[in-house]
Amino acid sequence: MTKKRRNNGRNKHGRGHNRIIRCDNCARACPKDKAVKRFLVKNIVEQAAVRDLSDASVYDVYVLPKLYLKMQYCISCAIHSKQVRNRSREGRRDRAPPPRYRPRVQTGAPKDQKKN
Fold this sequence. Notes:
alpha+beta
């Protein structure tokens, strides 16, 4: 029988069993090596309340802490929430990780300022 994927959709390689995890979206039991794992970083407070907190704060430059979550999805939820996509037969052979998106931090003066 033909194989669809080189790793059979898992990252097991030599281990007999893997412990199961629960999908964060639907609570389906899924092997840990098969789950789609994403690291989610978000602010503890919503964006609308950040200004109110900074105005009420005693400290001038207080950086609000962030919430770091490791999300683990089953394959069905990862596809439905567009975390991963299905690929063509030739695309499945490409084992290189996708390019990472990193927002650029501005350095120097803003471009909107006029120079005298």
